[in-house]
Specification:
Length: 124
């Protein structure tokens, strides 16, 4: 059983930056591909970015390409999401998730474990 705990959310002005962290415990972190999802009120949960378990392959949603960066540190059992040039439309609860597979998946149901989420609010 893997436990995931996100941190780093908060309120930021448009154009600002945040770094989210997701600390994993209870499993072999390097065995899991990791993803960051977000869900805004009234909308479906969507994949923002994902990384393979070795960190050598990444995916970014078109809406965040060039602004967000995912980075995993297998030695620290942590995955990060660096968010730059934030926009009001980035406002959502952000979740990290773990998938017991080599490569990342873009499917919500492909992930086995989820964190509790952290709120990101971007003011205009």
């Amino acid at each position: 059983q893997v436990q995931l705990v996100e941190s780093g959310g908060g309120l930021v002005q448009a154009g600002g930056s945040l770094r989210l962290s997701c600390a994993a415990s209870g499993g072999t972190f390097s065995s899991y591909a990791m993803g960051w999802f977000r869900q805004a009120p009234g909308k479906e949960r969507e994949l923002v970015t994902a990384v393979s378990r070795r960190g050598d392959s990444t995916y970014y949603a078109e809406s965040v390409q060039g602004r967000f960066t995912i980075l995993r540190d297998n030695a620290q059992n942590t995955v990060y999401l660096r968010m730059n040039s934030l926009k009001p439309e980035d406002t959502a609860v952000y979740y990290c998730a773990a998938a017991n597979r080599l490569g990342y998946t873009t499917r919500v149901h492909g992930y086995d474990y989820w964190g509790q989420g952290t709120q990101v609010t971007v003011s205009s």
